[in-house]
Amino acid sequence: MNKIEFDILEVKSNILNDNDRSSDNVREILKKNNVFMVNLMASPGAGKTTTLVKTIEALKDRYRIGVMEADVDSDVDAITVQNAGAKVIQLHTGGSCHMDADMTKEGIEKLDISDIDVLFLENIGNLVCPAEFDTGATKKVCILSVPEGDDKPLKYPLMFQVSDLLLIGKMDVMPVFNFDVEACKKYVADLNPDMEVLPVSARTGEGFDKWIEWLVKEIQKFREKEV
Amino acid sequence: MNKIEFDILEVKSNILNDNDRSSDNVREILKKNNVFMVNLMASPGAGKTTTLVKTIEALKDRYRIGVMEADVDSDVDAITVQNAGAKVIQLHTGGSCHMDADMTKEGIEKLDISDIDVLFLENIGNLVCPAEFDTGATKKVCILSVPEGDDKPLKYPLMFQVSDLLLIGKMDVMPVFNFDVEACKKYVADLNPDMEVLPVSARTGEGFDKWIEWLVKEIQKFREKEV
C-alpha cells in the first residue's frame, strides 16, 4: 500500500469574514510566490481526480505541481494524486460544501508553495456552492461530465457564469449517453460568451492536448503578469 | 410543445428559523392530509428526474402523485414530470443549494396536496447540503449513479447516514464504468447498517420492481400510522 506522506488539515468556513478581501489576499500570496492556481470545480464523480492525475502526468516534467484536495471527509483522492507526482495536502471541510478564500489561504500556508509552480485546488464535488466563493485562484475551471447531461448549465447557471474554462469530461462514454455537445455549448454561450469549451476524456486522452495547451498558455500569461 | 400548467414559486431559505420545528410542522401537514412524502436527493445528473418519471408511470394508476421540482433555476424537469402524469410545482431556490423545511412547507401550500396521495420532492442536485436539512418528508431516498463511482459514501458520508434507502442508478452503464456494487454496499453499511441498497436502471427498468415494492410497502406503513 502507499505511504501517506501528506498533511491533513481541518479547515473551517467563517461566514463573518469578508471573502472578497481574503481572495485578494490569496491572489497576492500567489503573485509573490509566482504560483499559478486553478480552482477545479465539478459535481461529485465528474472526474476531477482522474483529470488531475492525467494533467499532473502531462505537466510534471515542466512544472512543480501542488494539489490541495478538499473533501468533506476521506483522503482517497489525496493518495491518488500524490502517487501521480504532485505535492499534496488534504483539506477536510468538516461538512462545509465549498472552499472559501480563508480556507484556501490556510491550505496554501500549510502546504508551503515556495517550491511549487502550479497549484490545483480540487474543490468539493458540488455545482452550486463553490461557484459562489472566489478562492483567489488565478483561473476557475469547471468539468461537466457526459453522464450528467447537457442541460446542467440551465439548472446551475452560476457555475458556468463564473468559470474561465469548461471541460466536457468522460467523452469516451458518449455512445451510451444522450449528450448533445452543441446544445451544451449553446447553453453555456448564453451564460458566458467568452468561455472556452473543451471536450475531453481523461481515460482515452481525447482532447487532452488542447486542455494542456490552454493551461500552458494561461501559465505563461500569468508569469508575464498579464492576468 | 407542452403547455406549462404549473406554478413557479420562488422559495427562500431563512437561516434564523428553527428547521427542526418547521420539519415537525411539515410532518403534521402530511399526516393530516394522509400524504406520504419522499425527499429525493442526488448529485446533479444522477438521474433523479428520469427515475421519477418511471416511478410516476408505475404508480399513477394506484396513487395520485404530486411532485415539487426544486431547482436553482429553469423548469425543464417540471415539464418532463408533468408530462408523465403528476401534479407539479416548480420551486426556484434563487441560488440556495438545498431545500429546508420552511421552503418545503411553502411549496406544499402552493401546490395544494388535498388531492394527492404520494408527494415527491426532487431536491437540488447536491450530495452535501440537502443532507443537512430535514424537510419533514416521510422518507429520504438517495440516488448514487454508477458513473459517479463507488467511493462517494466515503466522501459525502452524511448523505448516506441520513437516507432511508439508496438507489444505485444507471446500472445499465455498468459495462463502461468501474463501479464495485459490493464495495459500495460495504461503505454504506459502515455508515448506515439498516439502509437498504437497490441497484436500478430507469432506462432498462432493471431493479425497478423492487424500488416500487419498497415504496408501496412504506406507503402502506405510513397509512397504518406505523411510521
What does it look like?
Two copies of one chain form a homodimer. Chain A has eight helices and eight strands; from the N terminus they run βαβαβαβαββααβαβα. With 227 residues, chain A is of the alpha/beta class. In chain A, strands 1-4-3-5-2-6-7-8 form an eight-stranded parallel beta sheet, with helices on both faces. In chain A, α1 packs parallel to α4. At the A-B interface, α5 of A face α5 of B.
Short description:
Two copies of one chain form a homodimer. The first copy, chain A, is 37% helix and 20% strand.
Rounded Rg of chain A: 16 Å
Overall 3D shape of chain A: globular
Question: Which strand-content bin applies to the residues of chain A?
Answer: 15-25%
Based on secondary structure, the structural category of chain A is alpha/beta
What percentage of residues of chain A falls in helices of 4 or more residues? Answer: 25-40%
**What is the number of helical segments of chain A per DSSP (H or I, 4+ residues)?**
8
Element string of chain A (H = helix, E = strand): EHEHEHEHEEHHEHEH
Give unreliable regions of chain A as ranges.
Answer: none
Using a beta-carbon cutoff below 8 angstroms, give the protein chain pair with the largest interface and the number of residues from each chain: A-B, 35 and 35 residues
Q: What is the average of the pLDDT values of chain A?
A: 94
Main traits of this protein?
227 residues, globular, homodimer, 20% strand, alpha/beta, eight-stranded parallel sheet
How do the strands and helices of this protein lay out in sequence?
Two copies of one chain form a homodimer.
Chain A: E1 7-10, H1 19-33, E2 36-42, H2 48-59, E3 65-71, H3 76-83, E4 87-92, H4 101-111, E5 118-122, E6 139-145, H5 152-155, H6 157-162, E7 165-169, H7 181-191, E8 196-199, H8 208-223
Parallel strand pairs in A: 1-4, 2-5, 2-6, 3-4, 3-5, 6-7, 7-8
